[in-house]
Design brief:
about 750 residues, alpha/beta, globular, 7-stranded mixed beta sheet
Length: about 750
Amino acid sequence: MDAVSSSSPAGPVVTQLRPGGDTLAPDVFACVPPEAPLAMPVQSLTHFNRASRHKNILRHPALGCWLARILVFSGSLALTAYGTCEMYKVVEVGGVTLLKWALLLLFVANFSWIALACMSAIAGFLWLLFPHKPFLPPNSLRHRTAIVMPIYNEAPARVFAALEAMIEDVNASGLGHAFEWFFLSDTTDPEIFVAEEQAFLAMRARLGQPCRLFYRHRAKNINRKSGNIEEFVTRWGGRYAHMVVLDADSLMTGQTIIALAAAMEADPDAGIIQTLPLIVNRNTLFARVQQFAARLYGPVIAAGVSIWMGRDGNYWGHNAIIRTRAFADHCGLPVLRGRPPLGGHILSHDFVEAALIRRAGYAVYMLPNLGGSYEECPPSLIDLSIRDRRWCQGNLQHMRVLPAKGLHPMSRQHFMTGIMAYVASPLWMAQLLVGIIIVLQASYIRPEYFSSEFTLFPTWPRFDPERSLELFGLTMAILLLPKFLGLVLGLIQSTMRRGAGGALRLIASALFEIIMSALLAPIMMLIQAGHVLHFVFGLDTGWDPQRRDDGSIPFKDIVRRHRSHVALGVLTLVAGLSISPSLVAWMSPTIIGLILAIFLSWGTGLRSVGIALRRAGLLVTPEERSAPHVVARANNLASERACNDAESLEGLALLHADPQFRAFHVACLPRQPKRRGGNIASEWALADAKLSEAETVDEAISWMHPKERMAVLLDPALIARLALLPKEPRAPEAAAPAV
């Protein structure tokens, strides 16, 4: 295939394909293709010219979307109104005090949140009851698509195996010529950096020529993942009409990747098309609970959200295809005014990018029934809380983006949903605390039966217990209805029912998941409430690489992380018993979850517990019972590569021992701007001094810290100095004979 070129103000755009050869030179040192830059201007949040919006080329029916919105939002409003009315009747007995008003307002905020989720699930359930046309693979594709996988200090064996499995699956379709594949590395660990290059060379040798696999490493991970993607677009975006963005734990079948490219070609008005990733490869109990819940309930909720979002949807940052030129023109992220955590670089960039490209007139939507899209999830509660802390900060930053000019109303709604996902936890906690204070007030503070105003009857400080119990039942029904609908759909669909081990095992697994979620919910409430307060008081979070393996966390770290949760649970139990046993019964799920926080976090993080449940046939998913080919292939390749990596040299030692690899590494280094006189990084200076003083390469390596080793890897002059060091100490010269 040759490329058909077209020009653009930002540089050459080479995206169309035609038969007749290949444009890539078989250069052993070419780790990236020829550059085709696109400008990516920073977008304004305070100004927007509506005349610049993309005008639709095709007509897109919107009646179904508007009917779904009417059903979901009017239903949510009706449920919230009814719940509010009932709650008011509960608290109005004996008069409504200031605390009761606070309780009512907090209840409305929390109840409206779960009402919207419930109505979305109902809409999704109704939509999934009817059959839908399967996606048929195209015979050809007109445009070139890039598949990009940003990586940051990940295990090379696993991420390279995943991309290799996807490449094989796409090539088997006969349409592999339409795709080029990129590893976009922001790795800062020197040993992993070298291992990535090794894995790239080995993978390219296995795939053979013509090779469409590339690897790029950034010396500085400016703006993290969004900056990684932006640097790709500004250097090579002009080569590609579309790009599929992956995460380091993503997997997609060849059929799904091709279907996304075909869908984008068929819809010139689409800016982003999102898939629904299912969770795979999980072994710990905590991760398996998430995996099962995502498989059983996820499609119902996602389908509901998809149909009322329509073409005004959202982007989750991975497992989606993006129109490259539209992304470059309209998705350059601004830096928020002020200091982190609420200012500075935007962390949750995906929501903002979706809002900006929708503002520009391009559609954003999901294909919830496409299938063939997979990801992984954190293996333990602590790992989830670490990831959630970063997501929480990013979502709270969206409060600064919410009033941006020109945004579509649905984009603002997505921002509100993301913010509420974390603000709901402190609101729930506040509702519990206000309720406890009211009960405490009624139990220990002498009530004022007769106010200063003349009344024939005293004012009794009490609630309506019968109506309160009915409202609690309604709240639990709305909270659990999405799970129940997912279970019903799973029992109807033979794939899910058989994949879970039959109807009885599916029901037992669903009940087990509900119990575990109820126990873990109060712990997550405190964790997320802590995150929100952390950022409200102006503390920033980092961007550590995600732990993706199934290794357990040391028990002492678990105790240190959850001891405050246990203490709060014990304190609540003691206080509740001293106030009212009925209060303890009402709060028992919260109290039990907090008191058992350490053991829940430890036990659910164990791989052995998760494996035991799988052997018992609980929490099993269809993808686990019969793994998709791309998942099984990626796992097999990862196991093979991990064994090979364990036997190879690492880092600077390999660079010293292998001249051919050293030449490749130096050839792939980006050109560094000329250093100003006197501007010397401390890591570079220390590495230079240690190389000068060391007598052997092993001695030099042992003296260097990771940042110093990274400085050597990024500097051709220091690499040349390293190569001159001997492996063994030089023998001392013989003394001259005495005269």
